[in-house]
Amino acid sequence: MGERRRTTGRWATAVGVALLGVTSLVAQGGEALDKLSLEDGFLSWDGVRLGMTIPQIERRIGATVAIQRSKEPGCPTWIADTQHHGLSLTFGFPSPKPTGKVEFIRIRFEGNLIQASGADLVAALRKKFPDATWQAPKEPAGITEAEDLEPDFAVPGKEPQILRFYPREAMVLAKSACLG
Q: CA 29 to CA 92: how far, in whole Å?
């Protein structure tokens, strides 16, 4: 009888650990875009939003961010890479000053976010923001939304802002002027 209790106990522990893994996966993003929101009229991911200053971001994520000049031409000029709740985020700023406000957030997909197809991401976006409108790219001309491999969506807010998907890789939240 004692052996059976130990076996049952091990089995219960194994089931508990497995359920914890499933719960963790669901918490990480049961819905593909569950951490995407509109805060104070700005696109936000998991509590960090466009328009925040460097000190506001540091307080929100609980870590100091190191600002460096971007190696890419154009917007953003200054960037900071960090980890937040298991995802790699890149923040873009027009200036390295503490008063510089975020104009670009890149969220690198991990876990179940990688599994979401472009169509899944667009459907989740439309469910969350029905007023989001697809922005047809300049090249190639005549492309449809379904054919767009890296679609941009204008999301109404305090100022013009864009959400761009790179399915199975990342998404970018940006002020329209930064991605334009």
A: 24
Tokens 């957030």 locate to 105
Query: Residue 4: pLDDT above 50?
Result: no
pLDDT of residue 156: 95
Please state the pTM of the whole predicted model. Answer: 0.80
List the one residue out of 56, 43, 66, 59 whose CA is nearest residue 152.
43
Residues 122 and 167: their CA atoms lie apart, in Å, by 10
What does the angle CA 31 – CA 33 – CA 35 come to, to the nearest 5 degrees? 100
Cβ–Cβ < 8 Å for 36, 43: yes
**CB of 127 within 8 A of CB of 43?**
no
Q: Write out the two tokens for 28.
A: 């990480």
List the domain boundaries for the chain.
31-54+103-179
User: What residues form DSSP beta bridges with 164?
Assistant: 152, 172
Per-residue pLDDT at 14: 38
